[in-house]
């Protein structure tokens, strides 16, 4: 393990551009259930049901059904970032990390202080008015404190939608995410088994001859064969990143 940590620190010290890709695993350490994990809603309620309700068509046609479900299962506002989120933000400030592409909607990277975050599935802490030409934005606590089941815009009465990518919608920031991953000299994947597209595809297109790949994940991933270093130690991502950060010398701050 120590050897792996030294190796990752050396790769980071030598890299001019490092992109981090994060999935559910980094947030489960902060206390957010992995929707696809054993305690997650996919397993408890069945993937079909979740996909039918957390779906753009259901949202448009039956917003009350959508919100009944959403309010019960997507309580993300009270969760604080974990150690791993804070260390990543610190390493960005120290100019060792240049971008974070995340599949998570919990906003924890931004809360921890990361600046250059590309959330491909959106962020649950923003709500956007759906009425044409309005587009007013609300934070989640304001939107969800509405006494009505379906929150509405104070300006125009339009229905508010959480700014997350629902089933049936395309991902956000596609080009930025692709650029950030494919142009990085070093790619560090944290807490993702790399099975959800299109991110999994970007990482697959990553060129292991000219670029280096590091994976910190519990369990196997689809790209283990291409990784220079793989650490599979559940629940320790924050501690591992802290040790790496401690090994890195000061660089000019971003
Ligand atoms: Zn509005």
What is shown here, in short?
37% of the residues lie in helices and 16% in strands.
Protein described:
This protein is of the alpha/beta class. The protein folds into three domains: 157 residues, Rossmann fold; 43 residues, no CATH class; 40 residues, no CATH class. Helix content is 37%, strand content 16%. Strands 3-2-1-7-8-9 form a six-stranded parallel sheet, sandwiched between helices. A three-stranded antiparallel sheet has the order 5-4-6. α1 crosses α12, α7 runs parallel beside α12 and α10 packs parallel to α11. 39% of the residues are buried. The model has no long low-confidence stretch (mean pLDDT 90). Zinc ion (ZN) binds next to loops. The site of zinc ion (ZN) has 8 residues, from loops.
Bound molecules: zinc ion
Strand order of the largest sheet: 3-2-1-7-8-9
Oligomer: single chain
The CATH architecture designation of the largest domain is 3-Layer(aba) Sandwich
Query: What is the top-level CATH class of the largest domain?
Result: Alpha Beta
Spans of at least 5 consecutive residues with low confidence: none
